[in-house]
Design a protein that fits this description.
The structure is a homodimer of 512-residue chains. The first copy, chain A, is α/β, with parallel strands linked by helices and 512 residues long. Chain A folds into three domains: 160 residues, Rossmann fold (3-Layer(aba) Sandwich), CATH 3.40.50.970; 132 residues, TPP-binding domain (Rossmann fold), CATH 3.40.50; 175 residues, Rossmann fold. Chain A is built from 20 helices and 18 strands. The first copy, chain A, is globular. The model of chain A has no long low-confidence stretch (mean pLDDT 96). At the A-B interface, helix 2, helix 4, helix 6, helix 8 and helix 16 of A face helix 2, helix 4, helix 6, helix 8 and helix 16 of B. Chains A, B: Belongs to the TPP enzyme family.
């Protein structure tokens, strides 16, 4: 068999059976080989940033990697921003980047570029397959390398795909998830018992239901406070789980949230830093006299460590969990808060919420936290334009669960062609565009950095008006049914209707 | 003054007075400083690939660099594909990439990534400004470094922008364009006079009117054939100029075009190679017994060298130039050829044609070559999605010239938000979408690589149907008036109307 056939069969054997693809000429044998291996599902995207963002969302929900299929260096470049987000969220993800045939590589053809250098900036594993005999083993190794998170990039010369002499490789053993040593748990137990102000700072695997319940047990038994990292990759939420609060994004609010903390215990995440530096503001919110301890690092078995800690310091404590309660359906003008209340009031059971609402997300987590159980995906790396693609990946990973994307308008435009893939796949995704007609976050930032001026010419670079974006028209142009809501009642009616019908829908929520 | 103010003033002083921007938080002082320097025109794009592609188009038409303003590593990543095209076309272009404040850099904040590594893959000059006192001199040096083409990337920490202590720097002297030595011209003259089959292979500065006329004089006097590189960055065309033929893209046709050539003389370009390698096909079209000679390399003064050659070998020859002739307006069904004939029949005087028609471009160069004088921009690096942005940049560079973009449908979707910037800037651009509902080039390639199978699942990855893209709706959603043409008559009517009215228009030309 040829390299492409062996590669795809090896991937399927290793549990990678979805490929978000935007192929070009050098990937044609891979495309052709898809016909031979029906277990591999190819999902076409019209832009590589959609493919990589979808693979990010898929990994977060499926807990295992999807592949992307990208066309040489420029294709990898187009996918880079959402690979950055996936890297920050520690999602497992396998890029297959087609390249020139080996004999063509030295000719500096027009599409030649330094793929390896670009791949290296986001990948934990990079390899160029050197022959058809190698490609399957390379692929098996790539999948094993990212079993506990991280990005593998397999660079695939076209002739390695098209030549015969390849054989399927067995899945490789994966590194076990490291256990946290009992002495570490003991040390943290002493800190928690010490009577000083302790915050358990949670992220990663602690955002699963079991992780949160174990942390809440510690909190209930010891008075330690629980604070969640600002943008966790995936969070289980809803009634029956602790109502946890995230560390706020604005530096001043983050510092206030941790003020007085003497011991910050990291579990599943790293110490917080502000998203950006600002004139005269410290770079992180941890108080000067606070000691930072580590219960578990990202990639370690933090849930087991937290359970051991709970057993040690609060064996009989009951975690404080939320009772089921929804906001009432609001009426009247649509603003971020009434939008959030509509979402909270109508959130279906077992939904996946993809949150790229940014400034329009005020109230969104609060008004959904005690509703039906759901999973929440947030923007981990700050590279906007992950929301629409992530929703696609989540819907492919979980076809029986409704996906709701809450999407800022400016950010939506980076990867807007994701909507076409929604329609192509008939993905059950309801997209709510937070249409405020501006890069509102930047208007805020322009003030915050103390910029000397915010006159007409500067504002024009932050304003999405002139002309306004008509998301209904854009969505319909890509095959997604769309409506516009200008009041809370309209949004409620349209959201109810969208959720009642399978397949994609978009609601342009005009927030003014 | 602060670093941002000094930077912008220095750029304006060095002749860089347009900035295609997609800013984020770390660029807010740059944005604020735009208000203080009205000579710098900020053009907002909704995606960085539009900014970089626009800067590419601007440089090709203005002959000098624009700046881009990009947001950290992910912003640079989003712009990378069109930077690749600019690199291949040797356009001068200055990226200003905002980065974290210096104090914040070491904290590994969520948006931290290796900007320098990514920038290095496309740039001839990369520097990180280390203090406000340095930034203006860095900027002046960057502009000087790319005077004869190439990409400079200035990485700009936020605090270098916001801190005071900066001063404007003078424009730096630029390296002169290297002259070709008389002995080189003499050597080529001997080859051309030698009586064997000679091809002058032209690109770069030879595609100016003067360059083509000098080459055509050589051809007229010596019998040397003229062949143009497949995708020149900018070509002067129309009646009064030689009707030159480009080396075809398909390897078989390229090899046929050079068959029998004993001497290939490069002028303004490098030796041709095929875009991709294919099983059993040589990597380039140059015959085995052909000797390759260099008259001028890219970046050298090839026009002067060609004139000297003409003076030496054909002082009295008259170049063969095209008489004015347009195709008749066709009627009936719309296909690539009738579309091309409509464009040829209606092409306005002094137009700029941006060609990303790909497979739908059959007949397009042929049917426009003897019409009114115009400039033609093509896709230099093969990274699709440069067409819509390039047209924006060309329109900003040449506000008094009509711009016509001939744009393949699949490729349009990579940077579709360019249309919004057309509307924002009221750019005089008429976009014709070649709407064939597929990645037609890949359907062709799937056959060509000899892929074993082209069944249903493979085809689904090359087909843009299910759902079809409604470009009229998409364009209207971004504020661009749009119509649909399904016959040659409709296309002619709509093109005439679009050209008669300033501002952007889009015509969805349904080629079936």
């Amino acid at each position: 068999m040829n390299g492409a056939q062996a590669l795809i069969r090896t991937l399927v054997g290793a549990g990678v059976d979805v490929c978000f693809a935007n192929p070009g000429t050098s990937e044609m044998h891979f495309v052709a080989a898809l016909d031979d291996v029906p277990q591999m599902r190819g999902v076409l995207t019209l832009f590589e940033g959609v493919a990589t963002g979808a693979a990010d969302g898929y990994a977060r929900m499926a807990g295992r990697p999807a592949a992307t299929l990208l066309h040489l260096g420029p294709g990898l470049g187009n996918g880079l921003a959402n690979l950055h987000n996936a890297r920050r969220g520690k999602a497992p993800l396998l890029n297959v980047v087609g390249d020139h045939a080996r004999s063509h590589k030295r000719l500096d053809a027009p599409l030649e570029s330094d793929i390896d250098a670009v791949a290296g900036t986001v990948s934990t594993w990079v390899r160029r397959s050197l022959s058809p005999a190698d490609v399957a083993a390379d692929a098996a190794e790539a999948v094993a390398a990212i079993a506990t998170g991280g990005i593998a990039t397999l660079i695939l010369p076209a002739d390695v795909c098209w030549e015969d002499g390849a054989e399927v490789a067995d899945a490789q053993p994966v590194r076990p998830v490291p256990h946290v040593a009992p002495s570490v748990v003991d040390d943290v137990a002493a800190v928690v018992r010490g009577g000083e102000d302790v915050v358990l700072f949670l992220g990663g695997d602690l955002m699963t239901a079991q992780g949160q319940l174990a942390a809440a047990q510690v909190a209930a038994g010891t008075g330690a406070r629980l604070v969640v990292e600002t943008f966790p990759a995936r969070t289980a939420r809803g009634a029956g789980l602790p109502d946890l609060h995230r560390l706020p994004y604005p530096p001043e609010m983050a510092m206030a949230a941790l003020a007085g903390t003497r011991h910050l215990v990291l579990a599943g995440t790293t110490a917080p830093v502000h998203f950006f530096g600002y004139p005269g503001v410290p770079g992180h919110p941890v108080p000067e006299d606070c000691t930072v301890h580590v219960l578990s690092r990202p990639g370690e078995d933090g849930v087991a460590a937290m359970r051991a800690l709970a057993e040690a310091v609060a064996p009989d404590a009951k975690p404080d969990v939320a009772e089921f309660e929804r906001p009432e359906l609001p009426t009247g003008p649509l603003d971020p808060r009434t939008m959030a209340a509509v979402v909270g009031a109508l959130l279906p059971e077992d939904a996946i919420v993809v949150d790229e609402a940014l400034t329009s997300g005020v109230g969104l987590t609060e008004l959904t936290s005690t509703g039906p159980r759901h999973d929440w995906l947030s923007l981990t790396g700050g590279a906007i334009g992950d929301g629409l693609p992530m929703a696609l990946g989540a819907a492919v990973a979980c076809p029986d669960r409704p996906v709701i994307g809450i999407q800022a308008d400016g950010s939506a435009m980076y990867t807007i062609s994701a909507l076409w893939s929604y329609a192509r796949e008939q993905a059950d995704i309801t997209t709510i565009i937070c249409d405020n007609g501006s890069y509102a976050i930047l208007e805020h930032e322009l003030q915050k950095v103390g910029a000397a001026s915010d006159g007409e010419r500067a504002r024009k670079l932050l304003d999405l008006g002139g002309p306004g974006l008509d998301f209904v028209s854009i969505a319909q142009g890509m095959g997604v049914p769309a409506t516009r809501a200008t009041t809370a009642e309209e949004l409620a009616d349209q959201l109810r209707a969208a959720l009642a019908e399978p397949g994609p829908h978009l609601i342009d929520a005009v927030l003014r």
